[in-house]
Amino acid sequence: MSVVIERILRYRYIVCLLWLLLVVISLPSAVTLHDKLKLGGFTTDNLESVQVEKILQEDFKQSPTALAIVFYSPDLTADSPQFVSEVKRSLSKVSKLPYVTEILFHDISPQQVSPDRHTAIEVVGLSIPAEESYKVIDEIRDSIRPTSLEVQIGGAPIFYADIERASQKDLRRAELLAIPIGAIVLYWVFGSIVAAALPLIVGGVSVFIALGLLSQVADHTDISLLAVNAVTILGLGLAVDYSLFIVTRFREEYENSEDVEQSVAIAVTTAGKAAFFSGLTVGLGLTGLILFKFMFLRSVGIAATAVVTLSILASIILLPALIAILSRFVVRGTLSRSIAGSYIFWRSLAEKMMSKPLLVVFLVMPVLVSMGLPFLNARFSSPDPSILPTQYESRRVFDLVNESFGPGSSAPITVVVEANKPLTSPSSLDLLFRLSRAVQQEAGVTRVFSIVDIDPRLSLEQYKLIYANARNIRDPFADTFLRSFLSGNKTYMQIFTEYGWNDPKSKDIVTKLRNTQLPAGYKLLVGGPTAQVMDISSELWREFPPVFFFVIASTYIVLLYLLRSLLLPLKAITMNLLSICASFGALVWIFQEGHLSRLFRFDPQGYVESTLPILMFCILFGLSMDYEVLLLSRIKEEWDKHKDNKQAVISGLARSARVVTSAALIVVVVGLSFISAEIILTKALGLGTALAVLIDATLVRMILVPALMRLLGDWNWWMPRLSAVSQREHSIDAEM
Fold it and tell me: Looking at the predicted structure, is the pLDDT value of residue 190 above 70?
């Protein structure tokens, strides 16, 4: 018995009181966490589209955030005096709010009127960043005066407000589903209320302290609101998993010896050690997220790493103390019979898998590969209000604008041109005119606004005459246009198309614009929603390879140390990637292509959210490796005893399969609880996690792994002679 475990058991009540004190200390911080969380975080400053946004704000004094207030009348047209009068009267108080920079009314901006003339959009500029603007929505809404016109509010502020509200509802709903169902599963496993309650207590303590810790971190760096959902999924799932391993091993040992302290010690040094290394592999996968520049991914990595660390610590420190205190209640239940029955079943299955290993591999591998094939057709994009159900206002306005104005009306492409000479010079006007007319020839382009697009009837020579004296333009309309679209040696074009910002045809136009070669002395930048979608995806996948290799390499090193084998870590990593790819394929099949959309109650997106595969890789690689470590640790324990590969695999799987599948079932339940989420990204993350764990704990760990280990034979345990002494000294006693 190690000194640490001995002291935990000796001071068991003090240990529990210290953890209770941590919960009490975390309470104030956990309560205030929500107010510190941020929305957004899907962009970085180095993106070309973000640079365009900065130029528009700094050089052209455009507001960082725009609110779209939509007015509609079935009887009045938008250009009627009564319609215009009612709109301006309705927004008279809004214009006086301190953070409202301007209101661009439809009567001076014709593109804000729908083709049928019955709908108009008034653009309200805000001085608040988009991610913070949702906090003032209620005040803006209260400032809108009643009118006979129908009024709806849309734009980024409403979208963020709806995301915030939906995220909170999703989290509460998932907790209400996951905790009771998880409790039922645990009771089914243990047959004891107290034994079933312990993993939930450890999970709850881990999550609560993690939230308090996250609140402290949020004082110094931005943390995404959606990171809390990751904390809940991982905290409940992993803490319950690790507790399940340790409690199960304790009960097994207690039935043999009926010595509480000895049984706890063995459980911690075997199952606890396996849980520690399992948590380490999960943590390494999640640490990879911290390496990204995107605030959303980075904050999920920080939050998840914190809750994984606390789950491990609570499982190997708090749980042994609780078991020692409540031991006579923990051992109640019909464990012997259930263990004996499951041992016979899993041993029989392992023997069958190992009797015809080549057949098993040839049957299972094509299934996993075919499940992953849809991922080859994945289209990546960034979310828009369509990820929300139609009961949310931002979604309704988004649909209304697309229907009334066309899908391209809310996604103009912005082209900024910067020169080292005046842009009203004849040569510059010639370049801008040719660029504008080339863009207008592109299929799907509906209109272009720029200093050379005041009136389609004007020729290049007429524009040169108008701007010959740029400081004293006689035409007031042309003067206003120039002031709006020209700042120093920078100008911009706004290009409207028939396509939404996620449409491949819109992306083709952006690509062509970015490939445009301008003469020396001119620089072209392309921004707008479509360009930002492309930039985000490109940057994410540019940053992903180093993260991928970091996760793979660090996991291999940990497994090399744990298993003392060169080949087993490689096999484990390969199996992980197979199960993850299978779940990725399922996500494309469901969320991009729309299969089962009615069952899961969502509108197909036609794409996969760009961050989702990366987020899932880092989470699922750790989770999948979690079960691999638990399985191989028990097999390694049997190998160290008998040095018989076949018997080690059969016995190790038979002894560990019950607890591994039960643990996986808990994570599947937690993941599936998020299928009821209203935000499609959360729904996809929950379903993807559940699918990956289900595939991993059944097809991969219980069927494919034993077959492959049978084929490899004693090569499973091959290690260069240089490590032989170290291998004997560090024999691993880990629990499955």
Answer: yes
Average pLDDT in the 14-22 region? 95
Per-residue pLDDT, averaged over 489-511, amounts to 91
- 121 membership: H or E segment, kind and range: strand 119-126
Asked if the model's pLDDT at residue 119 lies above 50, the reply is yes
In the chain, how long is the greatest CA-to-CA distance? Answer: 100
pLDDT per residue over 250-265, tens digit each? 888 888 787 888 999 9
Alpha-carbon distance values, 44 to 51, 218, 246, 532, 550 (Å)? 10, 19, 43, 10, 22
Q: Report how far residue 300's alpha carbon sits from residue 689's, in angstroms, rounded to the nearest whole number.
A: 15
pTM higher than 0.85 for the full model?
no
Phi-psi region of 488 (alpha: psi -120 to 50; beta: other; left: phi over 0): left
The C-alpha torsion from 591 through 592 and 595 to 596, rounded to 10°, is: 10
Q: Which of 209, 202, 208, 211 is nearest to 241 (CA)?
A: 202
Residues 511/517/521/523 CA torsion (nearest 10 deg): 0
How many Cα neighbours within 13 Å face the side chain of 14?
5
Q: What are the tokens at 310?
A: 């606390």
What's the pLDDT at 628? 79
Report the amino acid identity of residue 9: L
Alpha helices in 441-596 (DSSP H): 460-466, 476-485, 504-514, 529-563, 567-587
Under DSSP, is residue 678 helix (H, G, I), strand (E, B) or coil? Answer: coil
Rounded to 5°, the CA angle 376-379-381 comes to 150
CB-based contact 672:379 (threshold 8 Å)? no
Q: With cut-offs at 50, 70 and 90, classify the pLDDT of residue 523.
A: very high
CB 68 within 8 Å of CB 397: yes
In sequence order, the 6+-apart residues with CB closer than 8 A to the CB of 353 are: 360, 702, 703, 706, 707, 710
Q: Report the distance separating Cα 280 and Cα 316, nearest Å.
A: 13
The tokens for 296 are: 């959303």
Tokens of residue 97, six digits:
């709010």
pLDDT band at 700 (very low <50, low <70, confident <90, very high): confident
Q: Are strands 608-609 and 380-381 parallel, antiparallel or unpaired?
A: parallel
Secondary structure class of 522 (helix, strand, coil): strand
d(CA 507, CA 510) in angstroms, rounded, equals 5
- Across all residues in the chain, what is the average pLDDT? 85
Q: 75: exposed, middle or buried (C-beta count within 10 Å: 0-12, 13-18, 19+)?
A: exposed
Quote the tokens at residue 208.
């609560």
Whole-angstrom distance, CA of residue 365 vs CA of residue 361 = 6
> Is the pLDDT assigned to residue 98 strictly greater than 60?
yes
DSSP 689-722: HHHHHHHIIIIIIIIIHHHHHHHHGGGGG---GG
pLDDT of 202-222, one tens digit each?
988 998 898 899 899 988 888
* The token pair that represents 281 in the structure block: 């592999």
What token pair was written down for 67? Answer: 């609110």
Nearest-angstrom CA–CA distance, 39 and 213: 19
- In the numeric block, which tokens belong to residue 410? 């809310």
Q: Given CA atoms 73, 74, 79, 81 in this order, what sign does their dihedral have?
A: negative
pLDDT > 50? residue 736: no
Please state, in angstroms and as integers, the Cα–Cα distance from residue 200 to each residue in 28, 247, 470, 666, following that order: 22, 12, 72, 11
pLDDT band at 117 (very low <50, low <70, confident <90, very high): very high
